[in-house]
Specification:
The complex is a heterodimer of chains A (95) and B (393).
Chain A (H helix, E strand, L loop, with lengths): L2 E5 L6 H12 L5 E6 L4 H12 L2 E8 L9 E7 L17
Parallel strand pairs in A: 1-2
Antiparallel strand pairs in A: 2-4, 3-4
Chain B lengths: L8 E2 L9 H13 L9 H21 L6 E4 L2 H15 L6 E5 L4 H14 L5 E4 L9 H8 L4 E7 L11 H11 L3 E4 L15 E5 L10 E4 L16 H4 L8 H37 L4 E4 L9 E6 L4 H10 L2 E2 L15 H5 L7 E5 L9 H22 L6
Parallel strand pairs in B: 1-11, 3-4, 3-5, 5-6, 6-7
Antiparallel strand pairs in B: 2-8, 7-8, 9-10, 10-12
Helix pairs in contact in B: 1-8, 2-8, 5-6, 8-11, 9-11
Classes of the chains: A alpha+beta (95), B alpha/beta (393).
């Protein structure tokens, strides 16, 4: 069962900040589902996972509906086993 | 005047500023070359002579014939004309276009529009790039080898992240497939040697310190290129694209080319070292990723992204402190979409800053500007993160 981080209506970088705050409170292995309406989340949630060593499992679009309200995308993240974040200072993109 | 407003550090030179001598030439040409170069009177003949001279200077600099140099209203229009003319010339063989995922929107937006309006995704082949922004060679070869492909477009270098593309390899793959290659040199001309191979070259005079409002299209005689529509009766003056530029713009662009080309290698070496310092300083900050190839890149461009920082706030805070810097973050764009270049590279798109160094000829104090930028950056990033309560994440 996944935990929902509801970041709908927020603009970058707030969805990733909310995700990071929740990740700090949850146990390793937890499945988080980030709900976002911000197009930047499609790049930034996977990039955050890469920088923090978590597993990015993909995105699921949720169409707007009478029951569910406005449409959003759910980004799935599995928190890594090691709760210590890797040092990111000095990080440079590698191919 | 040549150094901009006092105390301002110009670190966003993608749209200029104009080389000081090109500025003088532009002002003089407003008086000397205002006339329509098609007119037969003395003023018209003077304008015609100045336009022809400008074309000769650019042709000599690019190693082509003057008749192979045509103009466009701006850089993006030059790219569109380059692609459209190759596609039209090849219309009997197909209409498919191939481009890298980090091409200019002048290539990507029409391609995506074509797919959307025809419902045929095969008509536009998008080739992915790696984490450094470099096109994948095997994917490129496969994409241009797909039947029905009639034109391919690849940047010489990307103006947002600086990464140089393997243009020669891409051209070889295109030749093997019989597909002409458009090389978009909008970000690179004047900063590095021109691309060694292409079937059409598209450029923007701003990249070598020339004025805005002038695109250049180089069409070698061997290239099959044509536009739809009636033949232009002014082609002798206007060139293949049919665009006759305002003569002062062409003359200023030629002056800027001569000045910038003469100083290019020295300017590039100095800029490369300055960018190296910015890259190192940014990478030393916590949770900052420097994007793009560290070595095989444009000398004067660097971009990086700060996790948990708002790109718009970074730009505003730096502006307040006297720095003009760009950003590829969504919140700084009118569209609310982040930079497609950063997204295609898998880079963080928020908290993004992009430094494009001006030519030393314009900003003689650019060393000092970079030093001040490096000194200000840690506090600016920390302040912007703290605003969002993200200082300790």
């Amino acid at each position: 069962m996944s935990q929902v981080v509801d970041a709908r209506g927020m603009r970058c970088p707030l969805p990733v900040i909310h995700l990071a705050r929740r990740a700090a409170d949850e146990a390793p292995g937890t499945l988080l589902e980030v709900w976002s309406t911000d197009p930047a989340a499609a790049s930034d949630v996977p990039a955050w996972c890469r920088m923090r060593g978590h597993d990015y499992l993909g995105a699921q679009p949720h169409e707007a509906s009478v029951v569910g309200g406005a449409g959003h995308t759910a980004y799935l993240v599995r928190l890594a086993g090691d709760p210590q974040r890797p040092p990111a200072a000095g990080a440079t993109a590698q191919p | 005047m040549a150094n901009g407003a006092p105390g301002r550090a110009i670190l966003d030179a993608s749209s200029g500023p104009v080389h000081p001598l090109a500025r003088e030439t532009l002002l003089a040409a407003v008086d000397a070359g205002w006339a329509d170069p098609r007119r037969l009177h003395g003023e018209g003949r003077t304008a015609r002579r100045l336009l022809d001279q400008s074309r000769e200077v650019l042709a000599a600099g690019l190693g082509v014939r003057p008749s192979e140099v045509a103009f466009a209203p701006d850089g993006p229009a030059a790219v569109r004309l380059a692609v459209d003319g190759i596609r039209y010339a090849g219309r009997r063989r197909g209409t498919r276009t191939v481009a890298s995922a980090v091409e200019h929107s002048a290539v990507l937006v029409p391609g995506q529009h074509l797919v959307a309006t025809t419902g045929q995704p095969d008509l536009f082949g998008l080739v992915p790039v790696d984490r450094l922004g470099r096109v994948d060679r095997d994917s490129w070869a496969a994409a241009v080898g797909t039947p029905g492909t009639v034109v391919a477009a690849l940047q010489h270098a990307n103006g947002e992240v600086g990464t140089l593309q393997p243009v020669e390899h891409a051209w070889d793959a295109c030749r093997a497939a019989g597909v002409p290659l458009v090389v978009d040199a909008q970000a690179s001309l004047g900063r590095v040697p021109p691309p060694p191979v292409y079937d059409v070259l598209a450029a923007d005079a701003r990249s070598w310190g020339g004025p805005g409002g002038l695109g250049v299209v180089v069409l070698p005689e061997r290239t099959r290129w044509a536009l739809d529509g009636p033949r232009d009766p002014d082609q002798a003056v206007a060139g293949a694209t049919g665009h006759t530029p305002w003569v002062p713009l062409a003359l200023a662009a030629a002056e800027a080319w001569q000045q910038t080309a003469a100083a290019r290698d020295e300017d590039a070496a100095a800029a490369f070292a300055l960018v190296e310092r910015v890259r190192a300083a940014a990478a030393a900050l916590p949770d900052v990723e420097v994007v793009g190839d560290p070595v095989d890149r444009l000398p004067h461009v660097v971009t990086f992204s700060a996790l948990y920082a708002d790109g718009e706030a970074l730009v505003r805070e730096l502006d307040r402190r006297g720095f003009a810097v760009a950003s590829g973050s969504a919140c700084t764009a009118s569209t609310l979409e982040p930079s497609h270049v950063l997204a295609a590279m898998g880079a963080l798109t928020h908290g993004n800053l992009r430094v494009t160094l001006p030519l030393a000829a314009h900003s003689r104090d650019r060393d000092d500007a970079v030093a001040r930028f490096i000194a200000a950056l840690p506090q600016v990033v920390a302040d912007v993160r703290a605003e969002l309560g993200a200082g300790r994440l």
